Predict the 3D structure of the following.
Amino acid sequence: MVLVLCIGDLHIPHRATDLPPKFKQLLVPGKIHHSLSPGNLCTKEIHDYLKTVCADMHVTKGDFDEDGNYPEDKVLKVGDFKIGVMHGHQIVPAGSKERLAFLARQMDVDILVTGHTHEFKADCIEGRLLINPGSATGAFNSHNEEVVPSFVLMDITGKKATLYVYEMKGSEMAVTKIEHPDPSLET
């Protein structure tokens, strides 16, 4: 079992002040093996905080990140999966499943983690899992001012990836479990 945190689009301090307290209670050091962020952490302080949660952190450049040293995209191997990470502001139209599937093929990855839309999504196209963990702070964007704060914790065991989607719905935290491969996700 390998736990992978997928978290992004925090936009602290520009569009949000902090992570929801219930999320912070879950994100403790020593439990997560890898952290993947498609970007828009925005500041070094947020990067450093997330690094305390998991030292093996992989970040790509979002369109609002102050750190210009993050790569545009990244590919890494976790267990039996090749995982690609990219912010997603490069995808037009934003969040297009077809464009994301093309990107996953181009990057030759089994799982693609992107952001930008601030909305959680999980789709399986051509056997490739596309994940957008949403905005962990619920930061607004140009398409939506009512964003549900969310992140994903992925449990990778062998050839199976189980997603635990954490969402703040009002003052309550909801957790949804999604298994991959899962034929019901295939489109």
The radius of gyration is 15 Å. The first strand starts at residue 2 and ends at 6.
